[in-house]
From TrEMBL:
Protein name as it appears in the record: Salutaridinol 7-O-acetyltransferase
Keyword terms of this UniProt record: Acyltransferase, Transferase
Source organism of this protein record: Morus notabilis
Gene Ontology MF term list: acyltransferase activity
Family statement: Belongs to the plant acyltransferase family.
Keyword Transferase applies: yes
InterPro entries recorded: CAT-like_dom_sf (IPR023213)
Superkingdom, natural source: Eukaryota
Transmembrane segments: none
Keyword Transferase belongs to the record: yes
Location of region: Disordered: 1-21
């Protein structure tokens, strides 16, 4: 039995890796058409399209995304921001 659990865990990890790789490729292809999103703010007045791409961040959580989206906690949304 533990061997089956390890196998399912391995297949789950493989599925997550495949999904992550697919998202990275999709982001790369999308940024070709929406290149300003891959740039950086310059002097808070314009976007410098420097062809550096976007930062792809991967995270693991112990819940379903749909559960979080039902009632999002603003304190957990500590995303970087800039104020003008």
């Amino acid at each position: 039995m533990p061997q089956n659990t390890n196998q399912s865990s391995d297949s789950s990890s493989t599925a997550h890796l495949e999904n992550s790789n697919s998202l990275q490729k999709s982001l790369s292809k999308t940024l070709v058409h929406f290149y300003p999103f891959a740039g950086q703010l310059k002097d808070n007045t314009c976007i410098e399209c420097n062809d550096e791409g976007a930062c792809f961040v991967e995270a693991w959580i112990n819940c379903q995304l749909s559960d979080f989206l039902k009632e999002p906690d603003p304190n957990l949304l500590s995303l970087p921001s800039s104020h003008y």
